Amino acid sequence: MSSHPAKNRNNKNNLGFVVEQRSVFSGPLPPPETLKGYGIIDPQYPERIFSLAEAYTRAEIKSKNTESLAVVLGMILSFIVSVAGLGSCVFLALKGMTAESVTAAVTGFSPILVNALSNLKKSS
Q1: Is residue 2 pLDDT above 60, yes or no?
Q2: Percent of the chain predicted with pLDDT > 70
Q3: What is the full DSSP assignment across 50-76?
Q4: What is the distance between the alpha carbons of residues 4 and 117, in angstroms, rounded to a whole number?
Q5: Between β-strands 15-20 and 2-7, what pairing exists: parallel, antiparallel or unpaired?
Q6: Residue 92: which residues within 8 A CB-CB, separation 6 or more?
Q7: Which of 35, 53, 66, 103 is least enclosed by beta carbons within 10 angstroms?
Q8: What backbone phi and psi angles, to 5 degrees, belong to 32?
Q9: How many Cα atoms are found within 13 Å in the side-chain-facing hemisphere of 91?
Q10: Tens digit of pLDDT for each residue in 16-39?
């Protein structure tokens, strides 16, 4: 809460005070005092706010679970492509196909590199 003097432009001797109050909160639920104020406006508001907060939390959990599953599946697919590419590299090298072997090696390492770079980008 802060206060500062407010001057009347017409009369410089007349001083008053303006009182200002601010509240900040984070998360799906406001502080109890604010929630009580909403209840004064309409008795159904607090229950509606709780319902919205519960729905928000469920959606957040579902989103994180889906994201985790996508990351795991991406890692598995990346591993499969890498193993196939490196296996092709060895097979082609044994057959004497050097250029094709190098191409297969690049194909095998690229998913590993892409996955590592995307994880670096997410962590920063």
Answers
A1: no
A2: 85
A3: HHHHHHHHHHHHHHHHHHHHHHHHHHH
A4: 53
A5: antiparallel
A6: 100, 101, 104
A7: 66
A8: -55, -40
A9: 8
A10: 778 887 777 777 888 888 889 999
Terminal alpha carbon distance of the chain: 37
Q: Which residue has the tokens 């509606």?
A: 48
Contact criterion met (CB below 8 Å) for 111 and 78: yes
CA 106 to chain centroid? 33
Distance between CA atoms of residues 29 and 39, nearest Å: 14
pTM (global) more than 0.85: no
Query: How far, CA to CA in Å, does 53 sit from each of 25, 41, 46, 96?
Result: 14, 19, 10, 64
pLDDT at position 74 is 82
Higher pLDDT, 119 or 76: 76
Query: What span, in angstroms and rounded, lies between the C-alpha atoms of 88 and 76?
Result: 18
